[in-house]
Amino acid sequence: MTFQVEFQAVVFAAGKGSRMSEITAGKPKCLLPIGSKPLVWYPLHKLQTAGFSDVILIVLENQKTEIQSALERSDLDLKIDYVAINDNEDLGTADSLRLIYDKIRSDVLVVSCDFISDVSLKGVLDKFRAHNASVASLFLHPQRSENVVVPGPKAKHKTERDLIGIDEQTNRLVFLASASDFETELSLPTNLLKKHTHVKIYSNLVDSHVYVLKNWVVKFLKEESSFMSIKGELLPHIVKKQLSKPPKQMDTKESIVNVHDSGDIFAFAKEDELNLAIRGMSAYNDHIGDLKGAYHNDSIRCYAYIAPKDTFGVRINTLPAYWSVNAKIVDVWERVTHGKELVLKSPNAVILSNQVDNRSIIWDGTKLNEKTSFKNCIVGSNTEVSSFSRIFNSVVMNNVTIKEKVAIENCIVCEGVTIEKGCQLKGCLVGSHHLIPEGSEYSSEVLTDSDRLMEF
Amino acid sequence: MSKKANEDMKNENTVQAIIIADTFGDEFIPISNNVPHALLPMINKPLIDYTLEFLSLGGIEEAFLFCCTHVDAIKHHIRKSILNNEVWTLTMKVHIIVSESCRSLGDCLRDIDAKGLLRGSFVLLEPGTISNIQLLPLIKKHNELMKVDKGTAMTVIFQEAGVNHISRCPQEELLVAINSQNRILSYKKMWKNKERKLDFPLEIFLENPCVSLMHNLKDTHIAICSPSVLPLFSDNFDFQTKDDFVRGLIMNEEILGSTVYCDILKGSRYGGAVTSWRMYQALSKELRQNWMYPIVLSRKKNKVLKNNVVVGEGTSIDDTAHLCNSVLGENTFIGKNVRIEDSFIFSNCKIEDNVIITHSVIGSNCVVKSKSKVTAGTILGSGCVIERGLFVENSLVQMEEPEDYEEADKLGNKAYRLRTDDDMDEDHSVKALVKKMSRLHIQEENYESEEGTDGFSDSDEDELSYTQSPVPDDTKLFFTEVIDSLTRGFEDNLLCDNLILEINSSRYAYNVTVKEVNFNVIKAILTLSLRQPIGPQYFSHLSRLLSYFAPILKNYIRNESAMIDCLQAIEDVATSNEELKEKWVMFVLQYFYNKDYVSEDAILDWFATIDQKTKFHKQVKPFTDWLQEAEEASSSDGGEDD
């Protein structure tokens, strides 16, 4: 018999990276290089440092082997249960969670593969534990915005803003919506404002997509097949339901069965008798200001944990986010990995150049020939850079061939690209497996085979 | 020379305050007919004394008292205070400004603007404000805000107070949205708003990273104003009250270029204003319990008795009187067996023997003659005389004859009932109910908790539960409701079936048990009959009443236990009305017995539970004796048959 773990960790790595299709065409989003590691390594490493030994990783069917082999080569000491989902159907996060319903026995910690942060998971888990919550969610203060020039043509990157209502006194999450759902007015139920007499509505918090879900939430999700995503549908629904009262208990046995069948959320959100009895006898109350019982006698309770102000935390779901995190990963590495040593130059790389600065990261299997120069750049594995080339402030992914006398500055060069002799690229995005002919000069452009982009 | 310069300097920096003395409303009629709001006695001291004491302790050096009515009385009072060297006179100058043409706070401020009396930021107090806060730090903070935000017009002072806190005025329930700099972005009164949803402009959330929506505040009616406030009032003639001002500024922020901030008092910092009888009661209570420390009631002049009773000088109370949660004025006389609960008796009153006064205010120089009952939010104006044995509830009573009164409103030669506006339109029953409630109803135990209904789905309970002012006692309310229904039914000759429907709906509204329904309906019918004086015509009136309500009686007295409830109701009415004699008890029991409403067994069972020592036992005894005799006779008859 195995003992039941307190939390099961689920990492979603089946996202297609639709917000940055230029670089995710031809490469799983979760394997995008960030510093010396693929993206998904960061949340997995965070889980490992938080004490998890088992993780369920949800991936797309056609990317499974690639991800598996990439992770097996990494230094993670985690037992990863790969769950592949069909990549033809457009499945959301809630759908995925429903698929692995059979594997869920405890409360669930849901993490997205694009979350890089130095925040400790303890904060949000403790909030969840302390109040026996239904859902606890981790929010981050926005990072100080920097003006970075993102490769590719100039574009205005719209940020999506959430409106997040948090009870000032109890940290209950009482309102959750996207700002774009409203036109000119935000309407809130009067009851909500009477129940939670001091609600703070934040418009700039970043939802980390780290959620802790009570076991019953997954059971409820199993019944409620209309929900596609956790963020978009499941959470707002549960948050709203905090304001409802459970339907009156019927007297006859028959109707109790009916209640169960109807999929009413309160049929799932039952607290056990002992807990209720203890709370009834205790003098504890989570709030002051009215004469209601602890938690307003709610059986559904959502909590928000806002990470401390100076926390570093980003979600890599847009091109600017990807670009800016790579620019500063060397600086934040130690905080993000909780003191792990950063290997700048892989011992398996052949580095014949003597002009590699200490902000550059070179992956294994890569060959940098003599008389090349690298500043503040990332060069992926199995890439070869020939002599007389220089790469500044750029990301070069795996299996790239760069011939002689090439100058690359402020660029992202995707997988399998070949750049012929004498090319000069400034601020460009080179799509995967693209071939740049000899002597080309480009600046601020997206270079990709258009038909290849269509494919995905 | 230097001395004069010094004085000028001092003048430059004097901290000024404006006190508006009049409410411009009719909240305190009929008391306010004779007494200005400023001189309303609050635990035997005029309200204005507390306000002035607060201002001088708070650091104000010059105060302008703006009066519109009863000017001479206020002038006289201030002069007297100065002669008596009241504490505040040492550090503060008070100027009285008189303008009888002003009809609102806005008018007053426009008048002051024209006079050009104020120099810098000042403190604005609405009528009846009492507080214990230090004003100088608040003014300093306000001035610093003005340096950062040139448009800063006002800092409104709120106090933190939980939902259902006694000093939260139901008419002033607030919902304020502020940003992290405490700037007010939205200011809503919840009172008239019965919407299930509240709308806020989206931009306030997008422009501010964090907006606090606060419903845990009460207005202290204190505001720190920039010099720009007065011209703003002058420019906008539609600003009548401070609320108009705040709302107008927020709405037209771009046009007027002015902003409003707030400051939130926490902990022992207190502020509040007497804006209605309800607030009057709340503030008296808080004053008694020292929430306003260092402003406390004067221990020299007042005696504090048990059961939260405060008594003024020269008042005599009979040993048999029962008092609780009340304040008695000076030189008042309380007779034998008087019961006073949750009430305020002003000075020089005479309360005669066996009077019951609950939840009421008795103005000065009133006489309440013996055996009368004054209850449920009644306010007696100065000099009223309530005649012997009168029952007054939920009324405003004044001494003088009103201009157009109906005969029914004449309670005595020196007591006339006033009709308030909302008595006229019964349609707004919710409003009327709340008005009733808002007068004087605070009982600690009975906060009606508002059940949180699902804001996202439909349910009609919400409309009702909106009246969230503390409701005294559901059963009592139900009783008054039934009385109202029956009176109207009898007067307007309504069908009893309809009345039953009405009673049943009140029953659900107040959630009373079947037992209580039976009890209260019978009690209501009997109480109704007592409005007729006990005389020769009384019994014919009673039987007319009973026969009229026969369908109702039949409907509610259905089984054995209902019979017991019915008999208990009779007992209750008989014991609580001293003048009811044996004859009444006999008549009622006989009537109910003859009409088969109650069975013999029920009467005998019930009789056995009555305490033998009571007067009532003696009154019932002849009837039960007669019953038993009759029974023996019939059973012996039966025996013969055998």
UniProtKB/TrEMBL annotation, chain A:
<dbReference type="GO" id="GO:0005829">
    <property type="term" value="C:cytosol"/>
</dbReference>
<dbReference type="Pfam" id="PF25084">
    <property type="entry name" value="LbH_EIF2B"/>
</dbReference>
<dbReference type="Pfam" id="PF00483">
    <property type="entry name" value="NTP_transferase"/>
</dbReference>
<dbReference type="GO" id="GO:0005851">
    <property type="term" value="C:eukaryotic translation initiation factor 2B complex"/>
</dbReference>
<comment type="function">
    <text>Acts as a component of the translation initiation factor 2B (eIF2B) complex, which catalyzes the exchange of GDP for GTP on the eukaryotic initiation factor 2 (eIF2) complex gamma subunit. Its guanine nucleotide exchange factor activity is repressed when bound to eIF2 complex phosphorylated on the alpha subunit, thereby limiting the amount of methionyl-initiator methionine tRNA available to the ribosome and consequently global translation is repressed.</text>
</comment>
<dbReference type="GO" id="GO:0003743">
    <property type="term" value="F:translation initiation factor activity"/>
</dbReference>
<comment type="similarity">
    <text>Belongs to the eIF-2B gamma/epsilon subunits family.</text>
</comment>
<feature type="domain" description="Nucleotidyl transferase">
    <location>
        <begin position="9"/>
        <end position="144"/>
    </location>
</feature>
<feature type="domain" description="EIF2B subunit epsilon/gamma LbH">
    <location>
        <begin position="353"/>
        <end position="437"/>
    </location>
</feature>
<keyword id="KW-0648">Protein biosynthesis</keyword>
<dbReference type="InterPro" id="IPR005835">
    <property type="entry name" value="NTP_transferase_dom"/>
</dbReference>
<protein>
    <recommendedName>
        <fullName>Translation initiation factor eIF2B subunit gamma</fullName>
    </recommendedName>
</protein>
<dbReference type="GO" id="GO:0002183">
    <property type="term" value="P:cytoplasmic translational initiation"/>
</dbReference>
<dbReference type="InterPro" id="IPR051960">
    <property type="entry name" value="eIF2B_gamma"/>
</dbReference>
<keyword id="KW-0396">Initiation factor</keyword>
<dbReference type="InterPro" id="IPR029044">
    <property type="entry name" value="Nucleotide-diphossugar_trans"/>
</dbReference>
<keyword id="KW-0963">Cytoplasm</keyword>
<dbReference type="InterPro" id="IPR056764">
    <property type="entry name" value="LbH_EIF2B3/5"/>
</dbReference>
<dbReference type="GO" id="GO:0005085">
    <property type="term" value="F:guanyl-nucleotide exchange factor activity"/>
</dbReference>
<comment type="subunit">
    <text>Component of the translation initiation factor 2B (eIF2B) complex which is a heterodecamer of two sets of five different subunits: alpha, beta, gamma, delta and epsilon. Subunits alpha, beta and delta comprise a regulatory subcomplex and subunits epsilon and gamma comprise a catalytic subcomplex. Within the complex, the hexameric regulatory complex resides at the center, with the two heterodimeric catalytic subcomplexes bound on opposite sides.</text>
</comment>
Automatic annotation (TrEMBL), chain B:
<protein>
    <recommendedName>
        <fullName>Translation initiation factor eIF2B subunit epsilon</fullName>
    </recommendedName>
</protein>
<dbReference type="InterPro" id="IPR016024">
    <property type="entry name" value="ARM-type_fold"/>
</dbReference>
<dbReference type="InterPro" id="IPR011004">
    <property type="entry name" value="Trimer_LpxA-like_sf"/>
</dbReference>
<dbReference type="GO" id="GO:0005829">
    <property type="term" value="C:cytosol"/>
</dbReference>
<dbReference type="GO" id="GO:0031369">
    <property type="term" value="F:translation initiation factor binding"/>
</dbReference>
<keyword id="KW-0963">Cytoplasm</keyword>
<feature type="region of interest" description="Disordered">
    <location>
        <begin position="444"/>
        <end position="468"/>
    </location>
</feature>
<dbReference type="InterPro" id="IPR005835">
    <property type="entry name" value="NTP_transferase_dom"/>
</dbReference>
<dbReference type="Pfam" id="PF25084">
    <property type="entry name" value="LbH_EIF2B"/>
</dbReference>
<keyword id="KW-0648">Protein biosynthesis</keyword>
<dbReference type="InterPro" id="IPR051956">
    <property type="entry name" value="eIF2B_epsilon"/>
</dbReference>
<dbReference type="InterPro" id="IPR035543">
    <property type="entry name" value="eIF-2B_epsilon_N"/>
</dbReference>
<comment type="similarity">
    <text>Belongs to the eIF-2B gamma/epsilon subunits family.</text>
</comment>
<dbReference type="GO" id="GO:0005851">
    <property type="term" value="C:eukaryotic translation initiation factor 2B complex"/>
</dbReference>
<dbReference type="InterPro" id="IPR044123">
    <property type="entry name" value="W2_eIF2B_epsilon"/>
</dbReference>
<dbReference type="Pfam" id="PF00483">
    <property type="entry name" value="NTP_transferase"/>
</dbReference>
<comment type="subunit">
    <text>Component of the translation initiation factor 2B (eIF2B) complex which is a heterodecamer of two sets of five different subunits: alpha, beta, gamma, delta and epsilon. Subunits alpha, beta and delta comprise a regulatory subcomplex and subunits epsilon and gamma comprise a catalytic subcomplex. Within the complex, the hexameric regulatory complex resides at the center, with the two heterodimeric catalytic subcomplexes bound on opposite sides.</text>
</comment>
<feature type="domain" description="W2">
    <location>
        <begin position="472"/>
        <end position="637"/>
    </location>
</feature>
<keyword id="KW-0396">Initiation factor</keyword>
<dbReference type="Pfam" id="PF02020">
    <property type="entry name" value="W2"/>
</dbReference>
<feature type="compositionally biased region" description="Acidic residues">
    <location>
        <begin position="445"/>
        <end position="464"/>
    </location>
</feature>
<dbReference type="GO" id="GO:0005085">
    <property type="term" value="F:guanyl-nucleotide exchange factor activity"/>
</dbReference>
